[in-house]
Amino acid sequence: MTQLSATPIKDALQSTAPMDAIRVQGWVRTRRDTKDFSFIELNDGSSPRNLQVIAKSSLPNYAEVQRLNTGASISVSGALVASQGKGQKWELVADRIEIVGTADDSYPLQKKGHTPEFMREIAHLRPRSSLFGCVFRVRSRLAFAAHQFFQDRGFVYVHTPIITGSDCEGAGELFRVSTIDIENPPRKNGEIDYAQDFFARQTYLTVSGQLEAEAFACALTNVYTFGPTFRAENSNTSRHASEFWMIEPEMAFCDLTGNMDLAEELVKYLIADARRQCPEELELFAKFVDKELLARLDFVIERPFQRITYTEAVDLLRKSGENFEFPIDYGSNLQSEHERWLTEKHFKCPVTVFNFPKEIKPFYMRSNEDGRTVAAIDLLVPGIGEIVGGSQREERLEMLEDNMRRHNMDPADYKWYLDLRRYGTVPHSGFGLGFERMLMFITGVSNIRDVIPFARTPGSAEF
Ligand code: 4AD
Ligand code: MG
User: Fold this and answer.
1) Going by CA atoms, what residue is nearest to atom 20 of ligand 1?
2) Which residues in the chain land under pLDDT 50?
3) Which ligand is nearest to the CA of 437?
4) In Å, how far are 135, 242, 274, 338, 457 from 450, measured between CA atoms?
5) Residues within 6 Å of ligand 1 by CB
6) What is the DSSP letter of 209?
7) How distant is the alpha carbon of residue 446 from its chain centre?
8) What confidence tens digit (pLDDT) does each residue in 281-336 have?
9) Whose CA is nearest to atom 1 of ligand 1?
10) Per-residue pLDDT at 109
């Protein structure tokens, strides 16, 4: 059985002419018997649509075909002919049906319309549903589009490490990587002696590839990294995952405005690409997930995003007259409800907020002349809130060392990072786009757990 000779069902459905001999393979969605033949709806994950197979009672193994359950896998050879029935252009009249793998009544996806919660419990089977098939095809396409965006612009793809010794965001939300015997750790002066650990130091899963991307930007000028990142943050929300993917460009000789421009361009590019490349999938989302989806996506592609400073955002929120759960004051973080008010109620479009108070942002952000704010950006979108976080980086050695001390970091631990400011320092900027949040925005799917193949969230890492 060679997979290559089979026709993807998507291609069969889009055929421009009948075909005498074609072979498809996939999983049975439904089987319905009439007196002389059976209808089998077959799906191979290439399209949200199924191919209708006609299995005549004259097939030598028709008795077995009549026992085929939802979930079974088959390979079908036959003729692609114009369909008599409604709803499809082509159907496949089978000469031969090979039953590859049977499935019994315990197959959990017997019917449509399961809740997202139920589907999460069968994360290994949910890609076989139309909706999740669409989500993960869009995810694949979007990853490709992200690479295309940067490669077309001459950015160099850098594989930043997954295991790292530094806490880029300084939020202490790190998963430790260690081979120390937790039952009996080596100790020195009463404390665990990490000098005896695998890397002879403390190491963690990375929260961001930024610091290492900066090193490469300060050599190759425009770079990006795109990989998994990990946060041991105990937030159980629909927008937070403990393992998620981030697209992080980093640009030398680039200031905050250049950074905002690129973030806006990237978000629009990814939406436009999905609009063009995944029409069937987006239509399915518009039908079953979010009726407003296509109109909202088109609107976002067409209009410039709003740009306001953090101070302006706080003023607007305070004058809004809204009764927020978290009161807003200068110096506090924007909460999800604030972000949503700005994008959904006030501006009714994506908003880039910039120049945040230095106290609420990480050590690496560049201090502004006012002494109070740093050159940070957060790009907010309707329905989700923050989708991009970034900044211009502090390129001045002494300022950066001061920032580190203010954040209770020891500059000696970051010698390599400070070297970038010692040797040929340049203004540089970058940001991180949360890949799953972007997917949520494009698909309308409202929970991050449903746009990542196997979600890791606090208390949950099954599969
Ligand atoms: O704002 P964040 O924390 O920024 C950084 O990590 C920077 N070092 C990026 C950079 O400048 N290179 O995260 C960036 C984006 C957020 O805007 C959000 O979209 C996403 O990553 N993100 C998460 N997505 C899912 N689950 C989480 N727990 C996330 N935390 C951040
Ligand atoms: Mg952020």
Assistant:
1) 434
2) none
3) 1
4) 8, 14, 18, 24, 12
5) 168-169, 208, 210, 231, 233, 240-241, 244, 246, 248, 386-390, 430-432, 434, 436-437, 448
6) S
7) 12
8) 999 999 999 999 999 999 999 989 999 999 999 999 999 999 999 999 999 999 99
9) 389
10) 95
Residue showing tokens 């976002």: 300
Closest CA to 392 of 251, 264, 266: 251
Q: Measure the CA–CA gap between 442 and 298, rounded to whole angstroms.
A: 11
In the reported structure, the alpha carbon of residue 389 is separated from the centroid of ligand 1 by a whole-number distance in angstroms of 6
Please tell me the residue having the least CA distance from ligand 1 atom 31: 434
Q: How far is the CA of 363 from the centre of ligand 2 (A)?
A: 13
Cα 16 to ligand 1 centre (Å): 45
Q: Which of 371, 376, 357, 362 is nearest to 429 (CA)?
A: 376
* 28: β partners: 42
Return the axis-axis angle of helices 279-288 and 293-302, rounded to nearest 10°: 120
From the CA of 243, how far away is ligand 1's center (Å)?
11
**C-beta of residue 393 within 8 angstroms of C-beta of residue 214:** yes
Domains of the chain: 9-101 (2.40.50.140), 126-171+207-450 (3.30.930.10)
Instruction: Report the residue among 207, 246, 366 best suited for mutation to probe ligand 1: largest number of ligand atoms under 8 A from its CB.
Output: 246
pLDDT in tens, 95-133: 999 999 999 999 999 988 899 999 999 999 999 999 999
Does this model's pTM top 0.85? My answer is yes
434 beta partners: 246
Q: Work out the widest C-alpha separation in the chain, in whole angstroms.
A: 84
∠ CA 436-150-147, rounded to 5°: 50
What pLDDT, on a 0 to 100 scale, did the predictor assign at position 1? 54
Backbone phi, then psi, for 339, in 5-degree steps?
A: -60, -40
pLDDT number for residue 374: 98
Mutation pick for ligand 1 pocket among 236, 437, 460 (CB with most ligand atoms within 8 Å): 437
Atom 25 of ligand 1, nearest CA residue = 240
Please report where in the chains the tokens 């309308």 appear, as a residue: 444
> What number of helices (H) and strands (E) belong to the chain?
13, 18
Helices (H), 389-434: 397-406, 415-422
Ligand 1 centroid to Cα of residue 94, in Å, is: 51
In angstroms, the CA 35 to CA 423 distance is 81
DSSP class of residue 344 equals I
What is the pLDDT, as a whole number, of residue 396? 98
Distance CA 425, CA 331 (A): 30
